[in-house]
Amino acid sequence: xxxxxxxxxxxxALLAACASTTPQPDGRWHSGDHDDKPPLELExxxxxxxxSGGCNRLFGTARVENGVLVVDQLASTMMACDPxxxxxxxxxxxxxxxxxxxxxxxDQLLLGKPGQQLVLRQQEDLSAxxxxxxxxxxxxxxxxxxxRMMCLQVRSDKNQPWQLHYGEIEGFRPQPGVxxxxxxxxxxxxxxxxxxxxxxxxxxxxxxxxxxxx
Length: 214
Prior knowledge:
The chain has helices spanning 3-20, 83-97, and strands spanning 27-30, 41-45, 48-52, 57-65, 68-76, 102-105, 108-111, 118-122, 131-136, 141-144, 148-155, 163-165, 178-188, 199-211. The protein is of the alpha+beta class.
C-alpha cells in the first residue's frame, strides 16, 4: 500500500470519527423575553427534540451531523391557536425540517443560516426543581402590591376559586382572552428580601390553552 493511499485512509477515518462525535448541544435553550411574542423554547436531550413557540409543542428525534441539525419524525400537538402563533409554528416547523446549520457558542445556540439565525440562550438547569400544574385565567385582575398593577389569576384545581398571583411566570407571555393550563417549576429564592416572594415560578410547558369568548 502506498504512503499516499495510507494517508488518504487515515484522513477519511479521522473525518468520519469527527462527524460521528460531533458534540450534541443537549440542554434547554430559549430566545429570551419579548413583549410582542412568547419566547421560543427548545430542548435537546438524549437524541430527542422538543420545541415550543408559545402554543403547540413540536417534537421528534434529532442529532447533529456535520454541523447541521437533522430532525426525524417531527410531530406536533394539535391545539388551536391564534393566527400569528400558527404562522410562527409553521415557519419553525419548516426551519427544523430543512436541516439548518447549528452551532454552539458558549451559552448561545445559533440555529439557521447567517442573516436568518435564531439565537437561543441556555437556560439554567431546573431538572431538580419540583413541578406543579396550574390553571391561569384568561384575564388579569387589578391588585395592589408595591403599587397598583394587574395580577394573573391562578388555581391548582378547576373547582377552586381564582387566586391572585403577585408576580409573573418566567418564560410565560399570556395572550388576553386565552385561558391556560401550565406545568411550572417552583424554584426557591435564596435569602429573598422581606417584601419579595420566596419562590420563582418558571414555565416548563403549556399543557393546553383555550380561547375564551368575552
